[in-house]
Amino acid sequence: MLRGLLAAAFGSVLVATSGAAHATDDVTIGVDFNILGSQVWVAKDKGFFEKNGINADVQPFAFGIDTIDAALTGQLDFGLALDFATTTRLQSGQLKIVSAIIEPEPGFHKLAVSEAIQKPEDLAGKRIGLANGTAQHLVTLSYLKNAGVDPADATIIPLPSLLEIIASLRAGRLDAAFVWGDGVAQASEIPGFRILGDDKPAKVRLYGYISTTKAFAAENPKAVENTLRALAEATDWMDDNFEEAVDIVASHAKSPRDRVKAQMEIQHFTISLKPEQLEGFEKIADFAATNGITKARVEPGDFIDPSFLEAVDPARVSLAK
Predict the structure, then answer these.
(1) Could you give the number of structural domains in the chain?
(2) Which listed site, 51, 140, 145, 246, has its alpha carbon 20 to 30 Å from 199?
């Protein structure tokens, strides 16, 4: 009798243990239609999510900021966006930043100009499109100042997004604007416009992050941890299999493979939290507050939680405690 009870109990333990080993968490992750979310697609297609007990529903959005908004409204569990866009949403008090995902080189934004503009100094007195409250906002103003052009001496025209910038260039309502992603090819095809250069002279370094909400992280800490573990493995795999990674991302992106590859080559994919990333975040928070993009200055460090990534791999976190 005792032997039977012990056998039954042992069998129950095996069943419970087996169930825990194969337990899966359903998560929804937002990416953009371009390359922001490359590791997510790789983790999905190469099985890193499944390996780590994550059933990931990947949902593409037009822009990274849209994924953050979707997370804040409960449509997604995770959103991905550059630090500038993320800063504007920290005012909600609901976000939790769990890792950086890209450390892109400058050069992502390209300056589309009319024939009347031959050099950066010619931007004085011209109509310049500004994607208000985005990284392009900071890049544009920094570029003008570094070119010796006072933004007050140009006509700055705020627009909500890249779509409106391209439409305004086509309609002749703008003389110049920084564009990015598919907008580069679209602007290049507009009669009378060309790409003068990129955003390197702006001397702005941006980073991209994956965020969730405080509520989701509190209720699903293992799902957050395992999602990061899968993305870390995907990132490492991409380092050794870049061309195949390009194939995977290009199969999901709304851009030709050559453009996807060119952009992926300057992204420096990462799953990490570093002091230099936070330093860049702080500068953006200063800019956002000074220029009225946020009502008050936010403290990015208050929203970064390294505990999940530390549980995955302490070596990936070098932020001061």
Answers:
(1) 2
(2) 246
Examine the domain organization and report whether 310 and 224 are in the same domain. Answer: yes
Identity at 35, one-letter amino acid code = I
| Gap between the Cα atoms of 303 and 93, Å rounded | 8
Structure tokens at 4: 């039977």
CA pair distance 133, 84, nearest whole angstrom: 8
229: tokens are 């573990």
Name the CA dihedral angle for 212, 47, 311, 315, rounded to a multiple of 10 degrees: -110
CATH code (residue 37) = 3.40.190.10
When pLDDT is averaged across residues 24-51 and rounded to a whole number, the result is 97
Q: Which range marks the domain in which residue 198 is found? A: 110-202
What is the per-residue pLDDT across 96-105, written as a single tens digit (0 to 9) for each?
Answer: 999 999 999 8
Q: pTM, whole model, 2 decimals?
A: 0.85
Same domain, 197 and 210: no
* SS3 category, 246: helix
- Mean pLDDT of all residues in 113-120: 97
* Residue 98 · residue 71 · CB < 8 Å: no
For residues 55 and 44, give the distance between their C-alpha atoms in angstroms, rounded to a whole number.
9
If asked whether residues 74 and 213 sit together in one domain, one would say: yes
Q: Which amino acid is at 39?
A: Q
Question: In this structure, are 290 and 210 located in the same domain?
Answer: yes
